[in-house]
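Design job #97: recover the sequence.
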């Protein structure tokens, strides 16, 4: 394969744009249900809606076959207590998972329907069991079902709500099933706005607009129901390019598009004030070759250079720590390194493992989890043999990223028990929800949202789109391509990221947030109008920048509105130091009303009794679990 550098040396100049450019050309698409985002939740929403009789359009910024955080794969399918190996009641398991500010609705759906969803993965061609007997004898494997319970959860397998799976098979199976069901897939299309009835924010959502990031063509979608599933935002505080590279297993396309669109349309959002450390380091997450912090590495004992065993991994987590969270051990280990009790470097001791466990970790777990497959294959091709070789690890000494490098926290759309948002016609699923969870959560809530949207469309009138709203959006979208100079998207992105780092990081005060909002307003008024794009792909990046800018403004406004600190939210105001006062132990809800932010508070138990509410809203659901 020719590299970019080699191409330029050979040709002397970059290639011309390889696709026909059709700026301004329109395509109109009508459907019953429009799904925005083709990740795990989006694909499941499209499949579920189609299976329930709806005509469906699925719009994805990348290529649906591998797009999103779950596109490359997953190795664990978590919190499915109705699976045959489970020893717990699903409602009790869900209650155990509930914490203040958690998404009770999504978690209850996950626990009740996650196993049903996994079975449907298998029916579509996804691999969920060791049917070829490759791992006979591995811990947690059940001979009858040939499924593999994860030792990540507990060594004595007294619960078994987490299964090990071949997640790299899932996304291709989802796209294939979408096609089989007649879902119209629009890959390489960025959705830019939601359309309201009458063109007025706060009105019923009747569709969306989008732009093809290869041809520049403008698409207008008309739908009775729309499901947002564009996941989170992992680029707001740091630019993921050569200007300030970082490593994360999240998709580069997750730039807060759904949050920004929902805001402009007038939907209610919550948890918008929360952020968390980004966890950047060369050993962060799926760069597991430099560290052993990921669940995929769950069985690999760490040792120092003299073979001395480290207290990592803490299998069983009897000390009360969270599975996979070994951060509480880092200070202790660092002290022992400085005292000379442990000698660097550290290693993952694969050869000390039973051969079957070593092979399962190396050949299955690490090849199925996100982007680590290419690393396993590269190491193997270079001669790495887990039965003979240890793998160097520095994760435990790298610590957290600089505190100003952050990511938006558990923010998302506020939803009811139908996963419908505060706007008529608009549903949400997966990481588009507040306090979202993992792959299983996204799959189950996507499947659920599709079912509910298909039922909703039978009760509503045909959508009517405002041409004025379309024209205004079209003018906004194409503004960067009408310029041939000015500011490139990378410069604007870097500026937004720095403003977030300076004014909305670990230090929070009213003055800092006010300065931050003024700074973002200046960027919006003075610099955003200078954005220019020379091709449709750069146009997409410019539009992403504008969404990042909107997301930053919402975050700062919400943070300014919460006038109390919270350990539960990892949210600390210097000027309001009281921790979790009772009157502030509520969801902070924010929406745009007449161009201004409107804030309200919502009780943490707004969803009601989870079991009673789930059953009341799903009387006709026929899944595996029928009560125990």
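Job complete. Output follows.
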């Amino acid at each position: 394969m020719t590299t970019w550098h080699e191409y330029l040396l050979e040709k002397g100049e970059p290639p011309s744009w390889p696709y026909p450019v059709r700026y301004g050309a329109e395509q109109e698409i009508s459907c019953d249900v429009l799904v925005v985002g083709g990740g795990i939740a989006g694909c499941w929403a499209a499949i579920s809606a189609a299976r329930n009789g709806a005509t469906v359009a699925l719009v994805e910024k990348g290529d649906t076959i591998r797009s999103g955080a779950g596109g490359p794969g997953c190795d664990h399918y978590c919190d499915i207590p109705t699976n045959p190996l489970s020893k717990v009641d699903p409602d009790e398991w869900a209650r155990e998972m509930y914490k203040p500010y958690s998404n009770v609705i999504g978690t209850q759906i996950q626990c009740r329907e996650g196993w049903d969803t996994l079975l449907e993965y298998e029916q579509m061609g996804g691999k969920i069991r060791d049917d070829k007997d490759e791992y006979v004898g591995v811990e947690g494997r059940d001979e009858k079902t040939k499924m593999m319970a994860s030792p990540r959860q507990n060594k004595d397998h007294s619960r078994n709500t987490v299964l090990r799976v071949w997640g790299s098979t899932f996304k291709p199976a989802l796209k294939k099933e979408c096609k089989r069901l007649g879902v119209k897939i629009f890959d390489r299309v960025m959705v830019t706005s939601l359309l309201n009835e009458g063109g007025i924010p706060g009105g019923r959502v009747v569709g969306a607009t989008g732009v093809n990031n290869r041809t520049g063509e403008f698409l207008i979608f008309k739908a009775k129901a729309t499901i947002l599933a564009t996941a989170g935002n992992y680029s707001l505080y740091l630019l993921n390019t050569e200007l300030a590279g970082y490593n994360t297993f999240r998709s580069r396309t997750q730039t807060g598009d759904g949050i920004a669109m929902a805001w402009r349309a007038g939907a209610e959002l919550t948890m918008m004030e929360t952020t968390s450390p980004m966890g950047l380091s060369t050993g962060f997450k799926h760069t597991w070759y430099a560290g052993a912090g990921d669940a995929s590495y769950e069985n690999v004992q760490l040792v120092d250079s003299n073979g001395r065993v480290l207290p990592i991994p803490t299998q069983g987590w009897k000390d009360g720590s969270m599975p996979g969270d070994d951060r509480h051990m880092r200070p202790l280990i660092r002290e022992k390194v400085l005292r000379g009790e442990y000698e660097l470097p550290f290693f993952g001791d694969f050869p000390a493992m039973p051969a079957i466990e070593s092979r399962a970790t190396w050949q299955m777990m690490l090849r199925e989890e996100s982007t680590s497959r290419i690393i396993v294959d590269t190491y193997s091709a270079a001669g790495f043999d887990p039965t003979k070789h240890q793998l160097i690890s520095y994760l435990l000494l790298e610590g957290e990223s600089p505190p100003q490098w952050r990511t938006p926290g558990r923010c998302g759309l506020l939803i009811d028990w139908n996963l419908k948002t505060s706007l008529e016609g608009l549903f949400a699923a997966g990481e588009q929800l507040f306090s979202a969870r993992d792959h299983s959560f996204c799959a189950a809530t996507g499947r659920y949202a599709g079912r509910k949207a298909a039922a909703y469309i039978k009760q509503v009138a045909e959508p009517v789109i405002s041409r004025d709203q379309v024209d205004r959006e079209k003018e906004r979208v194409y503004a960067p391509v009408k310029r041939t100079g000015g500011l490139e998207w990378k410069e604007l992105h870097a500026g937004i990221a720095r403003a977030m780092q300076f004014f909305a990081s670990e230090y929070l005060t009213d003055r800092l947030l006010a300065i931050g909002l003024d700074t973002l307003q200046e960027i919006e008024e003075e610099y955003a109008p200078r954005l220019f794009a020379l091709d449709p792909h750069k146009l997409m990046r410019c539009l992403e920048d504008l969404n990042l800018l909107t997301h930053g403004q919402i975050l700062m406004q919400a943070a300014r509105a919460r006038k109390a600190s919270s350990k539960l939210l990892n949210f600390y105001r210097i000027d309001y130091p009281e921790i979790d006062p009772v009157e502030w132990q509520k969801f902070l809800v924010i929406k745009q009303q007449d161009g201004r932010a409107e804030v309200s508070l919502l009780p943490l138990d707004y969803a009601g009794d989870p079991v009673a509410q789930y059953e009341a809203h799903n009387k006709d659901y026929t899944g595996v679990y029928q009560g125990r």
